[in-house]
Amino acid sequence: MTSYLLDVDTGIDDALALAYLAALPETEFVSVTATPGNVDADQVARNTLALLELCGRPGVEVAIGARGPLSIPLTTTPETHGPQGIGYAVLPEPAGQVSARNAVDLWIEHARARPGELTALITAPLTNFALALRREPGLPDLLAGVVIMGGSFYHQGNTTPTAEWNTHVDPHAAKEVFAAYRGKPLAKLPIVCSLDTTERMELRPEHVRQLAESAGAAVPELVLPDQPEGLRSTSGNTLIRHLSDALRFYFEFHRLYDQGYVAHVHDFFAAGVAAGTLEYDVRPATVDVETSSPLLMGTTVADFRGLWGAPPNARIVSGNNPEQAFRELVSAVGGLARRLGLPLA
Length: 345
Fold this sequence. Notes:
- By secondary structure, this protein is an alpha/beta fold.
- It has helices at 12-23, 41-54, 78-81, 103-113, 127-135, 139-142, 165-169, 171-180, 195-198, 205-214, 238-256, 266-275, 322-339, and strands spanning 2-8, 27-34, 62-64, 118-122, 145-149, 191-193, 202-203, 263-264, 280-289, 300-303, 314-320.
- The strands form two sheets. A nine-stranded mixed sheet has the order 3-2-1-4-5-6-11-9-10, sandwiched between helices. The protein has a two-stranded antiparallel ribbon with strand order 7-8.
- The longest helix has 19 residues, at 238-256.
- The protein starts with a strand and ends in a 6-residue tail after the last helix.
- The mean pLDDT is 96.
C-alpha cells in the first residue's frame, strides 16, 4: 500500500494523474489539497472532489490552503485547461464538501502522525508545500518521499522561454522548497519531474481509443484532428467520456501552439514516478530558482557538477520510457473504467 499526500491544481493532466492513482489497487489517498494554478483554489477543490468520486474514491478529504502565490499575483490558465480546468468535460456536482480545515495543517498533522509512511506528490505550484515547510521544517524527514512536477533545465519553458508553468506561478515558493532540502540525505531529496522528461509524455488520439477499448467499449472512441473543435464524446462509460472531452481540449490547445495534435501529460508521469510503476532515471543536482529578474522569473537552474559548492537538494529525472508509461496508463485507467461497472457505449 502506498499512502499519498497530494497537492494539485486540478487541470487536465492533474485529472489524469488522479485517475491513474485511483486505478491502482494499493493506493490510499490520505488527503488531497488544492493550490491555485491552472484555476483558482475553489475550482481546483471542486474539480478534485468530483473527479475522485467519478473514479470510485468518495470520502477523501480535500482541503484548500493558500489562495494565491507567496509574493506575486495569481495567474491562471483557462486557455490551456478550459474555464473550469477540465477542458470540455463537465464534471458532475460532487456529493462531498470541501474540508473546513486548512491544507497546510493537514499536511503537517498527517506527516507527524505517520512518520516515514506518506509519499508526497505535488503537481501544482509549490505554495502550500512551502508554507508547510515554514511551519514544520522537519517535514522532509517525516515524509517517506516527495515527487514534484515542475521546472525546466535544458528544455524550453512552456510559459516563458525559460520557465515551466508551476514554477512560474509561484517561483518564490519553489525557491523556498529547494532551499529546505539542502544538506538532506540523497534518499530524502525530492524527485523532480521537469519538462525535460515530461514533455516526452505525448498522449495521442490512439491512446484515447485504446483507453476506451481497455474499458470494454463496443464503439471506438475517436478524438481526431480532422473533427470539429469542441465535439463531445458520446461514450456510455462516464469516466472515458469525461477524460475524452478533457483531452480533446488539450489536443486542440497544443495544436494551436504548433505542438501537434498531442497532449503533454506531465502530471500522469509524476504520479507514475511516485507510485513506482514507471521507468525513469535520476541525477542529483543543486537546484535554485530565479525570483528577481523580470526576464528570467521562474527559471530553474540545476548545478549537476557542484560548481556552486553546495550539496545536492534534488534528484532530477533524466530519462523515461513513454511507450511503457502509456501501456501502463491504458491498462490501469481502462481497467478502472471497466471495474466501475458503468454502462458502456
